[in-house]
Structure to design on (160 residues):
């Protein structure tokens, strides 16, 4: 019984620890083609703290393996590479934009719908967790960045 009360106490303390210096702005996920089992997400992560913050984990119910990816030039071709951790610089930020860094939702657990909000949780090395609501946006007919339809299929075959 005593143990139960201690656990309850810890749970009450958690929101205080999560007074995040990390703020996520404009998070969204591009609606993938119907058959795709991956989707790409974009956002800006800001750090209002005086120290760098490392994001070490990302979780979401919508995908089995969410990963942050960066784009790197290799043998004259752009490749996606998993970021083992994302460093958000002190009093700065990092952005994830189409054609560059992105959050890759690998292994979607269901189809996405335009306009819905996906819950994604970031965890930092100092124990913060930051909850994100990312809106699903249908960009078809918008720009001609076909990152999802081509790149991701190739990427998927390569790494998984
Ligand atoms: Cu990727």
């Amino acid at each position: 019984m005593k143990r139960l009360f201690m656990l309850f106490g810890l749970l009450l303390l958690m929101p205080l620890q999560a007074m995040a210096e990390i703020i996520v702005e404009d998070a969204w996920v591009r609606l993938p083609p119907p058959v795709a089992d991956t989707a790409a997400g974009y956002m800006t992560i800001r750090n209002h703290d005086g120290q760098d913050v490392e994001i070490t984990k990302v979780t979401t119910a919508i995908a089995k393996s969410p990963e942050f990816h960066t784009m790197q030039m290799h043998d004259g071709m752009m490749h996606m590479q998993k970021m083992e951790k994302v460093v958000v610089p002190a009093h700065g930020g990092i952005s994830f934009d189409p054609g560059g860094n992105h959050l890759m939702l690998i292994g979607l657990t269901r189809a996405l719908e335009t306009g819905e909000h996906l819950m994604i949780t970031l965890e930092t090395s100092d124990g913060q967790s930051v909850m994100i609501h990312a809106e699903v946006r249908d960009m078809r007919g918008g720009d001609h960045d076909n990152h999802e339809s081509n790149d991701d299929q190739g990427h998927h075959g390569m790494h998984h």
